[in-house]
Each structure stands twice: as structure tokens, then as C-alpha cells.
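Internal QA ticket QA-208
Title: Verify multi-chain structure generation after dependency bump
Assignee: T.L.

Test input:
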Amino acid sequence: MVQINVSQQLRESIGAVRNYRVSEVVDIVGGGSLVQGEVGLMRSDRSILAKGTLHTEVELTCSRCLSLFSCPLSINIEEEYLPTTDVVTGARLPLPDEAGCFTIDEHNILDLTEAIRQYALLAIPMKPLCDDDCAGLCPTCGCNLNQASCNCLPEPADPRWSELGKLVLADNQASGNEPKGTKLDR
Ligand SMILES: [Zn+2]
Ligand SMILES: [Zn+2]
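Actual output:
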């Protein structure tokens, strides 16, 4: 849990900045990841703004060779945390109608854990690769070509696709540049 007590900072004037070093284990994709870096907290007129860059590594499955690998992530956080309690009077504060905004709890604890988790998930590549040059799996025998080579011949092109290729070609030649079709009047 990355929790910071901001009761002092909430009493400070607008623009006051405090920097915190983060070094905590956060559950990002199941299993803990050590998250490290620095986060700056700034007092704004209505909130505390958190901004910083953190680094971690998560275990992912390579989209090409399907092996597990450790993927480094940079997490750039920029979030606003709204207080739920007036730090001086202790009165509860009304929350603005903003979906999904982060809050500071009634003990003046600002918890970065959920923001770190969400930003880390966004930083995970859509098609993770264990290496930019990952050779992948042999489509015929399934052998991991990063670890061994096999004796399979290069796969012949799927005949269904080559038929489709001919169709597209013939269609283009028949119709010229403009695709011909019935347009529906709406
Ligand atoms: Zn791979
Ligand atoms: Zn093979």
C-alpha cells in the first residue's frame, strides 16, 4: 500500500509541494510488483495533485512465443485527490459529482495504490514481446524458435487466402478505380 498522510500539507498554502520516494510492492497483474520512484504532491485550492514517474516490472506472456517474461513499465501518474474531511474543523466535505475521482480519506491518508495499479495497467503493451527480435513459435511444430531451430519447411501459404487474393485482384480489374455497388438512399 502506498499511503501518505497529508494532514500537514492540507494545512499549507496553495502551491506547496512535497516530494515522496515510493518503494512499495503493489499488486498489478496478480502477484506483487516492486514499484519505485518519486511522487510530488502539490496543494491546490481544492485538492492535492499527485504527479510523478514510477518504475516497476510485471510478468507478462510474450504475444509471439508465449513465454513468460519480466516487462519493465514506466508509470506516469498525474491525479487529483479530493479531501473528504475538512482538515481544520473535521467536518465532512461534499464530494463533487465527478465519476472515478480519487479521494483522501477521513484520516487524511492519500492512498496512491489504486492510481498506480490503474496507470500501470494502461502502460502494459497490447502485444507484449519478450524481445523486439523474438522469433516466435514454429507454426508447424510449435517449437520455440528463440531456444531451438526445427527442421520444418517454411509453411506454404494457406490456399484459401491465395484464392481470396485472386478474387480481390479480379474485382479491382473489373471495376476500375471506383468500387461499384448499390448505394442505399437514406
Ligand atoms: Zn517472445
Ligand atoms: Zn517446426
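Spot checks passed. The beta strands are 3-5, 17-27, 32-43, 48-61, 68-83, 102-104, 109-111.
Status: verified.
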